[in-house]
User: Which sequence fits this backbone?
């Protein structure tokens, strides 16, 4: 991602959005002051470089968010670049890249559905969730994809693809008490309420994965409590995910008794 391309995007966005010169200067001067202070320390040039890259990416994300569809071709050149696996090799850039990717997903869903772009986006999600340090960012990407109606209209089986190829396959890899709770609750509701899963042969596989998650919860809970006690617990109304799972799965099995068959496990 070259500086000249970034500057071109900045100039284009300022012109398109009719941003006042004074407001633009305030933002640019503030950013420049921050970078100047950091660059006064030459002992860690890699940190300075990574900071520059992250700030530049966040700025690009903001500019994409400010644009009105259709997104100009200049921006779509950047989109092609961030779909490359090489762009995601630096872990410190991942949060900024995710925000930029989310901006493109929301502003240019029609373009994203073309060719193999959606496949590459799902590949990015798959790569991010392989690491505990970036797994949360990966699910931000996935959530944005699912929320976009235009993409789902173009690929009506998208939910099934995500469910079978990504969600179920990686379900047992989730770690952390809070993450386990969120995943177990969401997965429980899916297997009991989603028509797609209720009619799927993957139903039993997902049940098995949920049971595995719940069996690990106590161990991860102790580790999380030792690591930090200031975490805000989500879904406070659900204190015990195991009880939540049982309360949902029992009525489902009574309604669909044939799911107890070994063919679905």
Assistant:
């Amino acid at each position: 991602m070259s500086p000249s391309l970034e500057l071109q995007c900045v100039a284009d966005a300022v012109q398109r959005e009719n941003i006042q010169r004074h407001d633009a200067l305030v933002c640019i001067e503030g950013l420049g002051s921050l970078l100047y202070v950091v660059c006064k320390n030459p002992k860690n040039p890699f940190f300075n470089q990574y900071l520059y890259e992250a700030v530049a990416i966040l700025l690009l994300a903001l500019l994409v968010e400010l644009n009105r569809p259709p997104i100009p071709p200049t921006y779509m050149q950047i989109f092609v670049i961030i779909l490359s696996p090489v762009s995601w090799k630096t872990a410190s850039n991942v949060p900024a890249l995710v925000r930029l990717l989310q901006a493109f997903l929301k502003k240019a869903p029609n373009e994203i559905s073309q060719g193999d772009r959606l496949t590459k986006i799902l590949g990015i999600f798959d790569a991010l969730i392989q690491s505990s340090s970036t797994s949360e960012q990966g699910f931000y990407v996935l959530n944005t994809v699912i929320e976009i109606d235009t993409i789902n209209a173009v690929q009506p089986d998208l939910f099934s693809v995500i469910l079978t190829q990504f969600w179920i396959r990686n379900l047992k890899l989730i770690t952390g008490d809070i993450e386990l709770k969120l995943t177990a609750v969401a997965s429980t509701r899916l297997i009991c309420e989603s028509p797609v899963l209720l009619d799927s042969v993957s139903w039993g596989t997902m049940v098995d994965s949920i049971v595995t998650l719940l069996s690990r919860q106590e161990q991860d809970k102790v580790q999380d409590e030792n690591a930090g006690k200031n975490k805000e617990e989500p879904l406070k109304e659900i204190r015990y995910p195991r009880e939540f799972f049982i309360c949902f799965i029992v009525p489902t099995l009574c309604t669909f008794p044939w799911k107890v068959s070994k063919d679905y496990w």
User: Anything to note?
Assistant: The chain is about 70% helix and 0% strand. The longest helix spans residues 203-227. The chain has two domains: 1-156, 157-265.
